[in-house]
Specification:
Length: 205
């Protein structure tokens, strides 16, 4: 017998041998990861899942999503890159880092990120916001995506200088003409977007 809603011991899936080496003090962590690891791999408890205070994901589910970049780095660093591509693992693996050091998987700050890595972060966010093939969200119109990115640059997520360049060089327009649906391409107030940046993050990592 089981009540309609319950948290039971068998709902908790323990890590066992699958425990990933992502904690900063894990001796098996040779990649410099610095991520909080949930106590369990998964928790299927009904009360537990329904009582999450923020969003719809549990910490275990959020870690499972974020773990994709850990696997990306581990996989890419095993490949025999030629000299001119040797930084591919870092560029691909650091696009979820933030200028203020609150990103993942290594909590790197802006000063520790190369220009290509910062560019990748801007490109990744813009593509994610405007993509029409994501089953969990609707594609944002151009103006809304750029407003969200302006706040992210102001608040220490993205590089403000690169975001300004992204705006001033109209990179978003070239991308929109080629990849966005016509109904997504609306008017963009560049001056208003610049104004969002003025009283925020100073861009120093």
């Amino acid at each position: 017998m089981e009540t309609l809603l319950a948290d039971r011991p068998e709902h908790v899936v323990h890590w066992g041998e699958r425990r990933p080496p992502v904690a900063a003090d894990d001796p098996g962590n040779t990649w410099g990861f610095d991520m909080a690891l949930p106590d369990a791999e998964l928790n299927l408890g009904e009360y537990y899942n329904l009582s999450q205070p923020y969003g719809t994901l549990t910490p275990e589910e959020r870690f499972s999503i974020n773990n994709h970049i850990v696997q990306t780095i581990r996989m890419l660093e095993q490949l025999p890159w030629p000299a001119h591509l040797k930084r591919v693992p870092q560029i691909a693996g650091n696009h979820h880092e933030r200028m203020d050091g609150n990103g993942y998987p290594r909590r790197l700050k802006g000063a520790e990120l190369s220009i290509p890595e910062r560019i990748m972060a801007v490109a990744d966010v813009f593509e994610a916001l405007t993509a029409a093939d994501r089953p969990y969200k609707k594609a944002k119109p151009l103006s809304e995506a750029l407003r969200i990115m302006a706040r992210m640059a102001r608040d220490g997520h993205l590089d403000p200088a690169l975001y300004r360049l992204f705006l001033d060089q109209a990179v978003y327009e070239a991308y929109a003409r080629r990849y966005l649906k016509p109904e997504q391409v609306d008017a963009v107030d560049v001056e208003a977007l610049h104004a969002v940046l003025k009283s925020g993050y100073n861009g120093k990592g």
